[in-house]
Write a structure and sequence with these properties.
CATH superfamily of the largest domain: Cobalamin-binding domain
Strand content: 5-15%
Largest sheet: 5 strands, parallel
Number of domains: 2
CATH class of the largest domain: Alpha Beta
CATH architecture of the largest domain: 3-Layer(aba) Sandwich
Radius of gyration: 17 Å
Distance between the termini: 43 Å
Helix content: 55-70%
CATH topology of the largest domain: Rossmann fold
Bound molecules: cobalamin
């Protein structure tokens, strides 16, 4: 589909205004929001990551693509989010300490909202203490989602989950972990309740998990 290809190219090039238009065009062509997200924007970020790794582009270009993708997601959001917010329970989400990547985390938050969760988003570079304090202040939280995008911040993910595992509130919450370098094996090893590869699956799994409690 021409619209999706345009979304892909404009995210790779970091053209915010053009992405906004391309997403609208792709929607008008009849592409589904999930297709636009996966085959347009996420695929584009993979290309950007590959170009960065090869030394073809640098952090500023990566940042421009990130901004362009955020704009595209904003346009898509009303088409993706459908559920009755709050009916599935309360969740807290954040990217772990030392990590500033938030696009994936924001998508997870959006999908959770769509699945009916009320979501407290703590943002990026979130310390384990901040996760814990938020849960203490909000005893109705039933789900904690931690995101990590760097191999160097997997240690912070491990520290966070270990810390939460020792807390008195542990029995009341389920912990989900994710992000590109995270695996099921790591999730098991550090004592998280679940891992999923993408945001849509995360929301689905979250509903099952919370029902188990
Ligand atoms: C955009 C980007 C940036 C932007 C981030 C902007 C922002 N607001 O997020 C900026 C420019 C700031 C940046 C900085 C850096 N980046 Co960067 N970045 C990327 C890039 C290109 C895209 C990330 C992204 O948004 N992907 C799209 C989203 C949708 O995917 P996602 O985050 O993986 O999320 C999906 C799943 O993982 C899952 N998920 C995510 N979170 C969670 C949570 C839960 C609970 C669950 C269940 C699921 C889940 O659901 C999501 C959607 O389905 C990646 C390359 C890549 N392909 O990932 C590199 C990449 C992650 N960055 C990299 C690097 C090296 C850096 C820097 C160190 C560069 C530098 N020299 O400064 C800094 C680190 C800054 C820091 N302290 O965090 C490397 C990491 C290498 C490694 N193995 O550790 C990558 C892989 C690029 C590369 N190939 O080298 N980056």
């Amino acid at each position: 589909m021409a619209g999706i290809q345009e979304v892909y190219e404009m995210v790779v090039k970091g053209k915010t205004k053009a992405v906004e238009l391309a997403v609208q065009e792709a929607l008008a062509e009849g592409c589904t929001p999930v297709e636009i997200l996966n085959a347009g924007m996420i695929k584009a970020m993979d290309e950007v990551g590959a170009q960065f790794k090869m030394g073809e582009i640098f952090v500023p270009e990566m940042l421009m693509s990130a901004r362009a993708m955020k704009k595209g997601v904003e346009v898509l959001k009303p088409h993706l989010v459908t559920g009755a917010v709050g009916s599935a329970g309360k969740a807290v989400i954040g990217t772990v300490a030392g990590d500033l990547h938030d696009i994936g985390k924001n998508l997870v938050a959006m999908m959770l909202e769509s699945a009916g969760f009320e979501v407290l988003d703590l943002g990026v570079d979130v310390s384990r203490e901040k996760f814990a304090k938020t849960i203490e202040k909000n005893p109705d939280i039933s789900l904690v989602c931690c995101s990590a995008l760097l191999t160097t911040t997997l240690q912070a993910l491990r520290d966070t989950v270990t810390y939460l595992n020792k807390a008195a509130f542990r029995k009341n919450i389920k912990i989900m972990v994710g992000g590109a370098p995270v695996t099921q094996a790591l999730a098991d090893e550090i004592g998280a309740d679940a891992y999923t590869e993408d945001a849509a699956e995360c929301a689905q799994r979250a509903r099952e998990l919370v029902r188990e409690n």
